[in-house]
Amino acid sequence: MSAGRDSLERIHDEVVSCRACPRLVGWRERVAREKVARFADQEYWGRPVPGWGAPDASILILGLAPAAHGGNRTGRIFTGDRSGDFLFASLHRTGFANQPTSVSRDDGLRLHDVYVAAVNRCAPPANKPTPEERDNCLPYLEREIDVLTRLKVVVALGALAWDGGLRALASLGHVIRPRPKFGHLVEAEVGTYRLLGCFHPSQQNTFTGKLTPEMLDEVFVRARELADLPPPG
What we know:
CATH architecture: 3-Layer(aba) Sandwich
Distance between the termini: 35 Å
CATH superfamily: Uracil-DNA glycosylase-like domain
Low-confidence stretches: none
Strand order of the largest sheet: 1-3-2-4-6-5
Number of helices: 8
Helix content: 25-40%
Radius of gyration: 17 Å
Oligomer: single chain
Order of helices and strands: HHEEHHEHEHEEHH
Number of strands: 6
Structural class: alpha/beta
Shape: globular
Largest sheet: 6 strands, mixed
Number of domains: 1
């Protein structure tokens, strides 16, 4: 590979060493030091969390940011928290994952045709990055989209991921007017990509029934159709 060519490996290395946002650096490292009682015996990742998944993915699953005691602890987005439990169970049912659970970076989970990333790579206080922190981080997402040459579909988990996805695609020259509003199973054609909305698999949504397993499965079945992938065999 030439020195000037981008790659998922290069992006990964730059993400995990990033210290661009002082507030987020302080917060993620404080959480990693202080921990919570149930994980007191574990060593936290405490750094920005890179994207991961199939390098030939045709579907990108986009969240907002790592959870303080999920991805910020395990070093893998949606790993080790309730949102990830709900998400990966669905990916397993719909043929995108080899197992239904995700507890650590070395738990044997493999994704097929899917790459998982977030708008922000550091766990933010109260799960709310500032607009400046979002904009500092978006170039990583833009580069991942550019490097994922087979990508066709972006599944946005929640309104903030929908917004971040639109911003990243616009920076790559894919602008849509008027700007589509987020909604569950809402679709938008953005340049050569399809953006597909999904309620976030947070406990706030899954415990109240706003997002059910059947609803989440429907999203990934539709994503498979939009990506022109065969049914799982």
